[in-house]
Amino acid sequence: AAGVIQSPRHLIKEKRETATLKCYPIPRHDTVYWYQQGPGQDPQFLISFYEKMQSDKGSIPDRFSAQQFSDYHSELNMSSLELGDSALYFCASSLTGGQPQHFGDGTRLSIL
Amino acid sequence: QKEVEQNSGPLSVPEGAIASLNCTYSDRGSQSFFWYRQYSGKSPELIMSIYSNGDKEDGRFTAQLNKASQYVSLLIRDSQPSDSATYLCAVNLPSGGSYIPTFGRGTSLIVHP
User: Do A41 and B31 touch (CB under 8 A)?
Assistant: First the structure.
């Protein structure tokens, strides 16, 4: 069965650079979520989209933005990167809000 | 205090035993409760979902929800070394008319042969 696809798998950036992470949800899933997980931490909810509209916002820094496109893929844009942004970034999708989320393999972002 | 609390462990059980993982949450209005398993460096994998009070069984896994006491638990029967992982409890907490998915810090489970 098709799963959530994230790209890239690994990304290395320097401070103050920008990064774009991509997520392709499971077909027919209408809700996409983004999470940030630091080492030894639980996944922190950043933002979610339902039917291409932002639905909920969590602890997403103002330097980050996200959108969902007409084909339902989503992108997380990160600017003015800081050392503390180094983390695993997961995208998840669900059939609709409140339903079980299926996670992608994540993007490991390292800031030098 | 975190809104979703779990004992970080590690919880160590012998192979074949029952592992019991617990989770409490802060808001009575919470809906939709999930257990995920996460191996180190990998993504969370859905184990169980539960929405109403009582027990829900799926193979070796049983989720239990008690909304009055605001806890949800996961029992793993006949534990195997491959079950060794971090188990994350996730709760949809009410927030401004909507629900925010909120994870606990996870319980590390070690199943020893």
Answer: no
Residue B6: closest CA among chain A residues belongs to which residue? A42
C-alpha A40/C-alpha B15 separation (Å) is 25
How far is Cα B36 from Cα B42, in angstroms, rounded to an integer?
12
Coil/strand/helix, residue B98: strand
Q: What is the pLDDT of residues B4-47, one digit of tens each?
A: 999 888 999 999 999 999 999 999 889 899 999 999 999 999 99
Single-letter code of the amino acid located at B82: S
Round to whole Å and give the CA distance between B21 and A111.
35
According to DSSP, residue A97 is labeled T
Indicate yes or no: CB of A98 within 8 angstroms of CB of B32.
Answer: yes
Pick the residue of A42, A96, A101 with the most B CBs within 10 A to test the interface with B by mutation. A42
Interface contacts A/B by beta carbons within 8 Å: 49
pLDDT tens sequence across B36-89 = 999 999 999 999 999 999 999 999 999 999 999 999 999 999 999 999 999 999
